[in-house]
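To fix ideas, we close by showing one paired sequence and structure record:
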Amino acid sequence: MAIDGLIILDPTGRPIIQSSYTTFPAAYPLLHIEALNNALAKAPREGSVDPVIYVGELSCSSACCHVELGGMRFVATISEDADPLIAFAFLDAFIEILQDYFGIVSVATLKDNFDIVYQLLEETLDSSGHPLTTSPNALSDIVLSPSIISKLLASVSPATPGVPGARQGGYASGAFASPIPWRKAGVRHNHNEILFDVVEEMRGIVGKNGTTLVSNVFGKIESNAKLSGTPDLTLSFTNPNVMTECAFHPCVRLQKWTRDNALSFVPPEGRFILADYQYRPPQSALISNVPIPLSLKANMDMGEFGGTFALTLTSRLIKVMENLELKFYLGEDATSVQCTLSSAGSSVGSVGSADGSWSFNSRTKTLQWEILNMRSSGSWILRGSWTSKIKAPRPAHAFQIRFEIPSYSFSSLKVDQLRLSSETYKMYKGVRMRSKGSIEWRW
């Protein structure tokens, strides 16, 4: 159960970088690239391509697993009985490594740093297709980042025997020297701090009659540690019972969590995800679904060569919802849209204002309604009509809604305290909550 190789495609579908594929025929990666490009070309709309595409032109069964980032496609090819989840987990880990090295991952960045990307690929995936070192802290001691290479080249004079000599006594001399795989040895900071971001995401489906069919909340604790030495931390919560189906970073001691519901760990240096979890509503709740924080009333009237609609959005929270986005696919034959926005009963024009705006993407045939700040009182209304080239238009029977809620947590998870041992310095610690949601609202 291994990964055959990795391919990175540019926005036009051409390969930028790919694995060597030494044990496969020369046409093997090309067949997977062609299969993915054909699937993307035939897709009725953006985002409707299956994440796993079967390739049947070969004697053995194979498939390509792909994710999109900045217009590029990261493709992991698998064959026989390999689990696609392994491929997706590796793709996510490799993308995080690239972001850690380069910041913004783009076609230009990859082309300008071919050598570094190939080195990272060789260190993270062996010739048999098994993932190797995926910890950014360990990789930084093996593969030098662009900034460190620039500093080394600038500091090496023409009389110096060469960069490899400088590397032996320089930055990369401590590869795997630390007894803790995820943390470097001898880290020092003038200002010691650790920050936690508790990010929760709601995913839900609402039926035609407004009843919530399913709604779940998945959370993660993102951390950014800048601590000297080897700090040993213990993070405790006032209500750890709201966390279930937990998955932790390798630094977390599982026995401590099982016994005391506290996270005991020696953190990596820099950014990392400390824990993933699913919110478990109280057992006293009558239903297991988490309440949807907004309501949508949709009046749809289908006619010949088009239709009309009136959409009303209302917030159910006291908190302000930000960057709310509603998308409505009008069908592949949609030609034009006309809309009027109103807020709390007063018209704000046909194009929009600070309270909201709408647009129609003629390429994806999607109507998009955006509200930057949705307050707890009042309603936001979008009325309009659209035209179609066919007599019986076929729009999607669901709206896709996304939103963000700063300083809010669906689970009300609260940090009790954070204790530091094995070090004597004082550290700054901060915790921030934020939530977001993705709802499919059917009509």
In short: Confidence is low (pLDDT under 50) at residues 159-173, 345-354. DSSP finds eight helices and 23 strands in the chain. The first helix runs from residue 27 to 42.
